[in-house]
Amino acid sequence: MLGEWRDQGNRSGSAGLAAGIRLLMFDGQLPPGTTLPAERELAAALGVSRTLVATAWDLLREDGLIVSRRGSGSRTTLPATPANAPFQERNQPLDLATAAPGALPGVGVAVDAVRAAFAVELSNHGYLGYGLNVLRERLADRFTARGLPTTPDQVLVTNGAHHALALVLRAMAGPGDRVLVEQPTYNNALEAIRSAHAIPVPVPMPEQGWDLEGVDVVLRQAAPRLAYMIVDFHNPTGRRLDAAGREQLAAILRRARTPVVIDETLVELDLDGNPLDGPPPMGSFEPGLVITVGSASKSHWGGLRLGWIRASDEIIGRLAASRRAFDLGSPVFEQLVLAQLYADPEPLLRERRAEMAATRHVMVDALREHCPTWSFEIPRGGLSLWCELPEPIGTRLAVAAQSVGVRLAPASRFSAHGGLDRWLRLPYTLPAPLLTEAVRRLAGVAAVVTGSPGTLGSDGLIPVA
């Protein structure tokens, strides 16, 4: 993890080692509460003197970044973190309502790398309605590499995919308009549609794949103004529409002349392959009607709060004009950081995919051990399992799980009209030990959930991502 740690600071050694540890902490790879190796052990591993390590530890203590206790060693902390409470022991719930991992290792390095570029930007006004040019260029290059030739003029940078969808709804749908959605679908998309005073019209998904004939019927009978679909590692089911299905879907949309928002937030998380080798983006099948939205929230880090829209030049112009009612652009510094991450995206994204494939395996094993009557398909990508429960207890389970420190999102939130109480979305984005513990607790709760249907009460405001 330290890599070329002598290059991270003063070449006297101790300052370099301290700088290397500091960088790992600020990059999220050594979170607060991480136990550090003993001085003698680390000195032997690095081939340096114990005095050098001890001096580095002293420097980190002065900065409030590690705390030591005789007999229990040293561990990482942060100045704003209570030094007497190990990170894992604080009263924080195990969050299975949020399908989003921590920051991608490398975000902290990118922050350091863009400081000079940020200094240049300080001489400008900072209002970039379309987004930073270098980021638009690199996002366009990524689309092109995936099989959808794209120019920077066809990309609009937004404050996340949710913001992107809200912009499209404002520009292309009005109060009372219908919007076709899958059933189930991403719950925050449903909230965005309702907030635009539009009406979600669901097309149920069968046990396998998509009901494209049902999509065709709804488009002809309900005449929705817009459609919203997730064809890459669908949230929450994890399914992916193959190339033949995309071609059929494009033909259906073309006949109905219905624009569609394709949410590609999870496209980079192909855990069994490579996004560059997957089915071509939907926009390559119907460039005129497909509006693609994406986000760095799941692949890189939700704290960047950046997303994008890929569409025709004409639609991008309309959306940029409509945007002025929401905001005047996305933060410049975060755009520089994301542009740095997309300068050579594959190495870091491979790390993310390997990380999520490992935690997916942990979640599957934990469910098979502790909840053997729950059934699910192992998705090829994405961040969660869509579990079928033996009884319709999903909402009651979500209510009861809060008493054992586990936060769940009832499946009814992924439905346009409620229901789905036999289903549960379980993200595998927590560290492996916490995933196993969360499933163990859920198994205990499920064993005692009975009778009354229950209600979420005030905790129904738990955010879901």
Description of the structure:
- The chain folds into three domains: 5-89, Orthogonal Bundle (Arc Repressor Mutant, subunit A); 94-102 and 347-461, Aspartate Aminotransferase, domain 1; 108-344, Type I PLP-dependent aspartate aminotransferase-like (Major domain) (Aspartate Aminotransferase, domain 2, 3-Layer(aba) Sandwich), CATH 3.40.640.
- The protein is built from 15 helices and 13 strands.
- It has helices spanning 14-26, 39-46, 50-62, 107-113, 115-121, 133-145, 161-172, 187-195, 212-222, 243-256, 313-323, 332-341, 345-370, 394-401, 432-448; strands at residues 66-69, 73-76, 94-96, 155-158, 178-183, 199-204, 226-229, 260-263, 290-295, 307-310, 384-388, 406-408, 423-427.
- The strands form four sheets. A seven-stranded mixed sheet has the order 4-10-9-8-7-5-6, sandwiched between helices.
- Helix 7 (161-172) runs parallel beside helix 8 and helix 9 runs parallel beside helix 10.
- Residues 7-11, 81-90 and 451-460 have low confidence and may be disordered.
